[in-house]
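Researcher: Batch entry, complex prediction.
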Amino acid sequence: MLLEVRDLHVEFRTRDGVAKAVNGVTYSVDAGETLAVLGESGSGKSVTAQAVMGILDMPPGKITGGEILFQGKDLLKLKEDERRKVRGAEMAMIFQDALSSLNPVLTVGDQLGEMFVVHRGMSKKDAKLKAVELMDRVRIPAAKERVGQYPHQFSGGMRQRIMIAMALALEPALIIADEPTTALDVTVQAQVMDLLAELQRELNMGLILITHDLGVVADVADKIAVMYAGRIVERAPVHDIYKAPAHPYTKGLLESIPRLDQKGQELYAIKGLPPNLMAIPPGCAFNPRCPRAQDICRTEVPPLAEVTVDEGPGTVPSRPGAEALSRLSPPTDNGAGRQSACHFWKETLRDA
Amino acid sequence: MAELSKSNEPADATPNVSEVETVDAATESEAVAAIEAPVERGEPILQVRNLVKHFPLTQGILFKKQIGAVKAVDGVSFDLHQGETLGIVGESGCGKSTVAKLLMTLETATAGEVFYKGQDITKLSGRALKAVRRNIQMVFQDPYTSLNPRMTVGDIIGEPFDIHPEVAPKGDRRRKVQELLDVVGLNPEYINRYPHQFSGGQRQRIGIARGLALNPEIIICDEPVSALDVSVQAQVINLMEKLQDEFNLSYIFIAHDLSIVRHISDRVGVMYLGAMAEIGTDTQIYDHPTHPYTQALLSAVPVPDPESREGRERIILTGDVPSPANPPSGCRFRTRCWKAQDRCAEEVPLLAIPERFVGKDTPAAHESACHFAEEKDVVHAA
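Model: Structure tokens for the complex:
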């Protein structure tokens, strides 16, 4: 496994209290694989990624537990200078807003070349040639002429290509893309996602795609982790989750998006608002918004239980036994499996 | 005035652009009376004709000299009927927000007319303009910046009454504001809170309540849900549909999310680089698009169904949108179009029903500004 995040906990200590942003996240990505992390703002999807990259603001952020295994070694135990060698060279990140992520007073050539100067000890002149090569690779027309231009001279799509070029510069094993196309128009979004997928195939990289767009996920992901209030509530291979979600939150999300190919009736809307991270509801964090909530949901945190697709609705064995079993063994991510953190995942799955 | 507007009528007048019945109002009070008159459901309430907005590009500091113009909107015509929702889609920079501002008379049009109940609002002033503005309201994109952080919710929603006191007498305002909060699904007791105490979705409800305050007939929504989370988007869309039925509103719904536009709109117009590329009912545009740009736009939308990802044909456009300061000659889309031929560079395609479909009873027979318009279903093709 290329990257394994195990039971990660992150909190932010602020003047108003402790915000529990990530509460036990476990996921993994293999080389050449695309994991989509789906969630609304405040679900902890970006914070998890920042912890993996080691770019979390600490303080106020604090990693209070868990492991991040990258190619077998625990990144959280590395010293800062060792961590720096991993960042950029072994794993890289693409940010949402390319205009504010690029330095406005340096030319794009300088910024791309910096990767080679810092990590590879190249001369500035060689680094510039490398920068042109990279810009060609992400299909920026007239790369040679444009290498000396500043970020504001590029369009949004071209800037995002430069971000991709920068992430790819040292051919890392893992790329984390945090909402890479959210700020782009649909036609440009399609270009950028295509480019990213092609480069990923070519270099056999692992890709973590962080997004809230269910459409983008369906287009590129191999497996999906749905996050809510700092926890993964459902994890599944991409085809299963769209066919039959096993968590009421995923189901709600899928039903709340209008369709392009037909005119629907009134949209299903998940009632209420995402929870305040300083006061996450007891039990299942989704219970105040859940149409299926029962008493048990308000008191007991549902474990991330293995989902098995049974033959028919009549043959479902009683649930408590399976649940106790999954509570004994900590949640693992063997890659292919499917899990849901809902007391009533069987009922949800059957309804779908 | 009636004569003038007829001669300005675009040559390609078709069902989407009906004949304008102008009202000749000699005095201001006559104009106001015409504006207050009710319009039958389904009748055109707003008729936009050849609307143009050019922003000048200047050079020099003291002696400014115009060296060109950004052609943000370059000859747009459409009708809005009473009680319907007209969706306008397009990429950033296509001029859709400028159209909204022109309709609100927040910008002055360079040329063209906007007829509201038969009166050209680009030429109105004084009391008549004020009456029009009362009837056309706007909901903005970003609920974080469109509400004044130093005002309470009650003041924000009640502010329109300061300008139009005839809608709610002074003693009645608080009750009216609380009613509005209730209508948009917020607790009326929140009246003394400040915007920062609300979430994004709640703030957008406040923005909608402000838009409703003066009982307008038309609400122009400029990307009203694009800043919201998916689960909250659906709540706001449902609210807007409910309010439309309740208050008999007409919406102009501007967005870049094509799925949401289809969901809410009765008719849809696709804009590219300041001009309308294609316009028709939602079925005509989404299931039977004939303009290559619409087809590319629709095929680029990621569909939340992983089963279709291998089979779907995607038209990936090359390059970026050209600068509106220097749009291509002839058809504006030709630089990115795979069908482009010599004719496209020389001749501007008119927004009209393509010749091959004229008189045919097919959903493809709707206005499309392309010389080589051809029906192609890109949404269902799997």
